[in-house]
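[User]
If only I could read backbone structure tokens as easily as an amino acid sequence. I have put the entry right below:
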Amino acid sequence: MLKRVAVTGMAGLSPIGCDWPQVAERLKNKSTGIKFMQDWDKYQGLNTRLGGPVDFTRPEHYSRKQVRGMGRVALMATRATELALGDAGLLHDECLKSGQMGIAYGSSSGSPDAIAEFGNMLINHATGGLNATSYIRMMSHTAPVNISLFFGINGRVYTTSSACTSGSQGIGYGYEAIKFGLQKLMVAGGAEELSAIQAAVFDTLFATSLRNESPDKSPRPFDRDRDGLVIGEGAATLILEELEHALARGAHIHAELVGFGSNSDGLHVTQPNSDSMQVAMRLALQDAGLDASAIGYISAHGTATGHGDVAESHATAAVFGDKTPISALKSFTGHTLGACGALEAWAAINMMNEGWFHATANLDNIDPECARLDYIKADVRKLDCGYVMSNNFAFGGINTSLIFKRWDG
């Protein structure tokens, strides 16, 4: 018998705030978190200077021993998880160490500083910069492993290191682990730390924004005058729980996760494919047993790149037509890579419960090459909807779609 999956805890760290009231205020005021990254001046050949940093430092109650194997990405993931477990009323619950709780969490990579330590070895033929934690901080599964160690969680671990779908795949695979009876609870989400390395990946593809003198004007998803993406950082965690288990302990339920679709293009590493994106959305609708008309709002991937925006908009139009409201959180946070799917799901659930949805910042003139959709442009849109969809599309042609249902008790 398939299990229903509730979201009983949520938390996020983002360039526009580290709790929901902060984030909501910035969204309503259309105040983005994009900054000029002066420290990047030292990198010869790097064109962009725009980034979305998080105002975050190590919490005082984290001891040095607890964090010695953590780079910034793992530290943010752990803190977001601590807040989410607290929100769920499970922070010190015996279920963490019972084997009933697992982890599905991802990032594009480990901490760049640790990667550089190994790069120094290859370049200078010396291991002098390495230490006992270098690999732990570098490894692609540094976030879920450190979460497991910090809280003593000993169920199964899924590492979802799939670039821009790392967070949404984490949520999707956590959902499936509960749905099919493999775990009763899952820590799910994603994280990423801001680095010039991440910016350089897209800079070499001529895909970064060069509005270095006006950070508040970029990125511009779906806009005619966009000039590329901006890299950000952050972390977000959802606590997923078997619905019967949540109800039995009297948990507050933020939403029910009812649909997940994921596939791959199998065509090109960096060029998005509209047809495959459509399939991912339809798979999520099929999993949820819903018609497209049931979805009241779509959280777009919305990277502010030409190929990406056009492909995504036409895929969305093919599934939904032009009547479903849509907006892009990356216009506020930049592209937070492994964190974006989780941050966007967190925001979408909160907005669904509060009956409003943010506009896309800097969307002044819709690109005529983008499909006609109901883009939320100027101001917050008040909406009463029972279902929201959150979509992400990654390098490697990996596509994900999540559907959340408002919990009405």
In short: The CA atoms of residues 29 and 319 lie 31 Å apart. The chain has a mean pLDDT of 97. Residues 72-87 form the longest helix (16 residues). The longest strand covers residues 255-264.
